[in-house]
């Protein structure tokens, strides 16, 4: 025998009882708003500590230890002379001293054609041009915003006659494509890199920012692909160059990490606060 029950009453009763049911709130990692927010400079410092301490182990603590040094009593301060602002050209570009080392390692000869695949923001590009040996410079960076910054830098520091397309060519393209279309066109090539010191000091456009996570993770793969595309070429034989002569020449100014099997690494020191930067030269 069937009995009649009010449907509206059952629905209302169910709504009242569901309020007492415990709900589970899950934090979804894919939501950027739920992740803890750390400054990009702090993430860069953490990456610096973990990466170098894992590679150098006990040598890192020993290497960073600073010993007391005697300062010269007659030390003087260098003061720049008053510049000429009528030319609208800035007189000097501030950058870390180690940023000049890759330019010196390349040993650019007069008449050379250079391809710089990590030209922005422009410090190494200006250093290359200051050698007065570059016949033609192709400055490239993958992102357009960095390329615009490079153009502004060159406009501030170079006379207009040096900004000719026949001398300096600025592009924003994939470096691997340049390797296929411009084969055997360059005497020296500088591949993409990261600047650890810049990442630990500057928050703006930091590579450790959350928005650039994908770019940072792909950078080692990009570097490997650019190198392998040349190394596996059957018509070319690649050899790692010995840079011990370079270390001996600059060991009084920079602190080089010991016992590296390939390349050279400059680490910052309390008595010589330059770097970090890693260099490896292939021929």
The Cα radius of gyration reads 27 Å
Portion in beta strands? 5-15%
Number of strands: 6
- Helix residue percentage: 25-40%
Number of helices: 10
Head-to-tail CA distance between termini: 95 Å
- Judging from the principal axes of the Cα atoms, what is the shape? globular
Order of helices and strands: HHHHEHEHEHEHHHEE
How are the strands of the largest sheet arranged?
Answer: 3-2-1-4
CATH homologous superfamily descriptor of one domain: Vaccinia Virus protein VP39
Please state the second-level CATH architecture of one domain: 3-Layer(aba) Sandwich
CATH topology name of one domain, in short, is: Rossmann fold
| Overall average residue pLDDT | 76
Largest sheet: 4 strands, parallel
Low-confidence stretches: none
Would you tell me the structural class of the helices and strands? alpha/beta
